[in-house]
Amino acid sequence: MRAIGVVIALAAALALQTTLAGLTIHGSTAVNLVLIAVIYVALAFGPVAGLMAGTVGGLVQDALAGGIVGVGGFSKTLVGFLVGLLGAQFIVAQSLPRFVMFVAGTVVHELCYQALFALVETRAFRMPWSAAMIQALVNGVIGILAFQIVDSGPGLLQRRRARGATLSRRQF
Amino acid sequence: MIDLTPRTPYRQRTGVLFGAVMIGHLILISAQVQSKAGVPVLEGVTFGVFSRIQGGAAGLFRGVAGTWNSYFNLRGVSAENEALRQQVATLEVRLQEQRAQAQRADRLQALLGFKESTALPTLAAEVIAGNSNPGLLTVTINRGTADGVQADMAVISPKGIIGRIVGPVASHPARVQLLIDRSAAAGAVTERARAGGVVAGVEGDPPLAMDLVSNLADVKPGDVVVASGTDGMFPKGFVVGTVEKSERGPSLYRLITVRPAVDFSSLEDVLVVLVPARGAVPDDLATPEVKK
After folding, report:
1. Residue B68 phi/psi, 5° resolution?
2. Residue A73 forms contact with B (CB below 8 Å)
């Protein structure tokens, strides 16, 4: 059930990411939904799930992007595992810690991603800090929203069901 | 807070899984990246790693093969060396034999020349044994009565007088008393001054002394001493030796030492003068059976 949820989340993130591909800041993508999904899975289910989500999501994203397959996968796997590890060690049930994890995860991902490309392309390491920080903040906000939505999802359904039942009794 | 408790198997498995996945990613990236040489990094790294392994294996194989071949070569060389060593030993023996034969041929040639130059009837003989008794200086030759050898016959060599046949004489071997024996003597005369005397064996160096030479005689070191023939045994004129020291004696006779002309330490081939000594009794007549 958990795996299916992870797969669905990743698939949705990939689908949305492809539609949002045109949203860029200084040439860089303003948001990375796949990375958000990976960090979310890692925080929610632990390091192994984060690792697997990072691997699958990263590889698929690389494959769809048409670049070198594995660079994004490596970065997302690293981030998923580290975030999962830290999420298991620290209490990250509140929004702020989760936000910090999303921001930090995005920065680490970008650092690793740029470093790998510098290594692969045998060029000097360049880190687009501004774009990376913007993406980190956007990712953090979206991540928090995602947690809020998911966390409030079951309660909302229960309230809707309860409200529906009351209305029915009033009608009849 | 960070958990510092010992790792559980689950966490260990997680770490292993993480490591494996990361390595898988690196391999995947390397497979797509081209190196400066235009070869994929994965291929280059794989080729480099395996080339080292192959190089090591090839080196190991070559080393083992080389050691193996060297071992067999060494075995072959060792056997060949042993065979060559035996061959060299055999050839050295043959060389020594041929050298000895050549020397013997030279001696025999000299002996033959001497035999032809002298009018005396002689018989060539070979020294086959030395003396078994340290008190007597004798040698054994391979000629005997069957060859006409009799007692008291002179034995000579191209260099000079050796000694005489002493009885009893067997049919083939005969004993020769050397002139340097203490009981041997020969009539002699100096070649230059014609001073006569008797040469006899003595203990010392030189091993010959010339007695019964008057103090008045002119005998000097270096004078050649020859057989006088007065003993009726040794042929006249044959060299005995050379005067080494000549001093005036306390009595009537001089004290003369003579260096033998013959090297008695290396006698091999001799000539027996087949002339019976004057007054000598033939062996066949001296035997009891004949006397009867």
Report:
1. -65, -45
2. yes
**Are A81 and B18 in contact (CB < 8 Å)?**
yes
Question: Which two three-digit tokens encode residue A39?
Answer: 């960090």
Domains and CATH numbers, chain A: 2-171 (1.10.1760.20)
3-class secondary-structure state, position B260: strand
CB contact under 8 A, B32 and A70: yes
Q: How far apart are CA B34 and CA B48, in angstroms?
A: 14
Say which residue, A29 or A118, is predicted with more confidence.
A118
Q: Is the complex ipTM more than 0.85?
A: no
Closest approach of B48 to chain A, Cα-based (Å)? 18
- pLDDT digits 0-9 by tens, B1-27: 445 455 566 677 888 888 888 888 888
Residues 130-149 of A with CB under 8 A from B: none
**Is the CB of B1 inside 8 Å of chain A's CB atoms?**
yes
Residue from the list B14, B22, B25 with its beta carbon closest to the beta carbon of A48 = B14
Give contacts of B32 with chain A, Cβ < 8 Å. Answer: 68-70
Minimum Cα–Cα distance from B22: chain A residue? A74
